[in-house]
Design goal:
11 helices, 8-stranded mixed sheet, Spore Coat Polysaccharide Biosynthesis Protein SpsA, Chain A, about 350 residues, alpha/beta, about 15% strand
């Protein structure tokens, strides 16, 4: 396999318990990509699935050797699985998308056309239809606006991990060493000529969504703290403001006492002020602790994912050794057997 010509297009799909979606998705991808006359491969990154996802990948590989897989040792999260797929992709252009069919394969020819025109990053922008719930639309737009305001990296509402990246961009992304992965913003940060293609989100073909409100909040918090120091700076500003208010209250109390003004001591007001100030203090200590915790995670230099098994592909360190080894994000033991 290693002597075969590298494909033009790699499609990377992170999958966690998606056994009901992969076979149909492979059919749709083949129907879209085969008429283009380009060689292609499908890389499925199994993020520690507990169902038959890997069994389906093995079965598809037996029918079509263009289907390849990388199986992680446990569930490392969507972004880590996506990074693992990118690290194993060998195409001149790499398209990432989800396995649930909400990213329509029919958009891929448009992405490829933009790439052929010289665009190195082709984003997709989801057009929300009436089937998207009000809460989903509102929370998504709010997140993108808050993140863009805090991080200085502009993300448009509806921008997700459905995109095309040129090989040059992929190799640059694989050099990034940080633990707190948020690839949407990293792709924006690296620059390179980009374009945007709108698409309508399709319905999930099988299974349930993997993003519960708790996972979505965790993902949002990781994204903000990975790319912005604004929460820390906001803590300093708010602390200065509350300290100023407290100082003015002290001046007022002392002045009233010196000038002989009648004052009625009030335990409720004192306790309210103290409770407010201590509440703000603990919030800011929590924010500082979050950043310190991220520093601790980074200095440990643990791999961002570990590979249990590969199918039809080779460790990407042989192609981007400088990037992955320097970025310590490999998780690729060199002596692991390769399955063909």
């Amino acid at each position: 396999m290693r002597n075969q010509a590298l494909p033009e297009i790699s499609v990377v799909i992170p999958a966690w318990n998606e056994e009901g979606n992969l076979e149909r998705l492979h059919e749709k991808l083949a129907a879209v990509l085969d008429p283009l006359g380009l060689s292609w491969e499908l890389i499925v990154a199994d993020d520690g699935s507990s169902d038959g996802t890997w069994r389906v990948v093995v079965g598809l590989n037996g029918l079509d050797t263009r289907v390849k897989g990388v199986r992680l040792s446990r569930n490392f999260g969507h972004q880590a699985a996506l990074l693992a797929g990118l690290a194993h992709a060998s195409g001149r252009a790499v398209i990432s998308m989800d396995a649930d069919h909400q990213h329509p394969p029919e958009v891929i020819p448009t992405l490829i056309d933009e790439w052929r025109r010289g665009t190195l990053v082709v984003h997709t922008i989801r057009v929300d239809g009436p089937e998207q719930g009000f809460l989903k639309r509102t929370s998504s737009r709010l997140f993108y606006r808050i993140f863009s305001a805090l991080s200085g990296s502009t993300l448009e509402p509806g921008m997700a991990d459905f995109r095309l990246l040129d090989r040059q961009v992929v190799d640059e992304l694989l050099r990034f060493p940080e633990e707190g992965l948020f690839l949407r913003s990293l792709v924006q940060w690296v620059g390179f000529p980009s374009a945007r293609v709108p698409y309508e989100c399709g319905p999930r073909y099988s299974g349930l969504t993997k993003y519960s409100p708790r996972r979505m909040l965790k993902f949002a918090w990781t994204a903000v703290t990975s790319f912005s120091l604004v929460p820390l700076r906001a803590a300093v500003v708010t602390g200065a403001i509350t300290s100023g208010v407290a100082f003015l209250a002290i001046v007022y109390a002392v002045g009233a006492r010196v000038l002989g003004f009648y004052t009625v001591p009030g335990w409720a007001s004192i306790l309210s002020i103290l409770s407010f100030l201590f509440g703000m203090l603990f919030i800011f200590l929590g924010i500082i602790g979050e950043y310190i915790g991220r520093i601790l995670v980074e200095v440990k230099q643990r791999p961002r994912f570990l590979v249990r098994e590969r199918l039809g592909t080779e460790p990407a360190v042989s192609r981007t050794d400088q990037g992955l080894r320097g970025a310590r994000g490999a998780g690729f033991p060199g002596d692991e057997p390769e399955r063909e």
